């Protein structure tokens, strides 16, 4: 039974690896967009119905303007990569929501929400493009589906460990289970999330450059975000996000590549 369980895990891993069109990487993905998007759109509709959407203001117009430019940039970039059909099932929307939280997100399928609480930090279109480009990049890179798949795999691994230690004492089983839980979280799940964030930063810089914004302005935005947090943060190895210093250093290193890609796509900044 144990042998068949482990063989099943390896078979599932082999089947679930797919190449993402925008990154070119093979990623773990048990969830297709055809399965994910309907649920995503439903959750988005429910959120919009339960929260105050700001319309008719200069800020709301700015969110729509930047959102449309990032959408157009994504379409141009994927066409450049020979993947123009990748966005055919996207249903783009850009909403400003009255919420003091410093946050923004993009659901799988292109539903974007910006909270009003982040606007004092974005300050202008370039700041908004940094945020919205980053959040759209999570969707384009299928990070939501990957996280869901990784969580499923973590559960499968826990079940496999349980089967492998079933003949051990209860105390030994508990020790192994606790070690697995900590090890898989700190050693796999958190680094996985941090790599997603760094990947979204890279793609987001490219999108904002293609959209006509200067990616150098992303440094100013993330510096303001760091100042907002007062420099206090969870230790990087225990966090789902890179530290502020790591993120800013990475962004500085990625900016030349983003500008070069934008030039290739046909936008000169």
Automatic annotation (TrEMBL):
Xref: Pfam families: Peptidase_M48 (PF01435)
CDD domains for the chain: M48C_Oma1_like
Alphabetized PROSITE patterns for the sequence: PROKAR_LIPOPROTEIN (PS51257)
Recorded GO CC terms: membrane
A Gene Ontology BP annotation from the UniProt entry: proteolysis involved in protein catabolic process
Gene3D superfamilies (alphabetical): Metalloproteases ('zincins'), catalytic domain
InterPro entries in UniProt: Mito/Outer_Membr_Metalloprot, Peptidase_M48
Cofactor: Zn(2+)
GO molecular function annotation: metal ion binding; metalloendopeptidase activity
Signal peptide positions on this chain: 1-18
Domain Peptidase M48: 87-253
Cofactor note as given: Binds 1 zinc ion per subunit.
Keyword terms, alphabetized: Hydrolase, Metal-binding, Metalloprotease, Protease, Signal, Zinc
Protein family according to the UniProt entry: Belongs to the peptidase M48 family.
Protein name: Peptidase M48
Species in which this protein is naturally found: Flavobacterium johnsoniae
Lineage of origin: Bacteria, Pseudomonadati, Bacteroidota, Flavobacteriia, Flavobacteriales
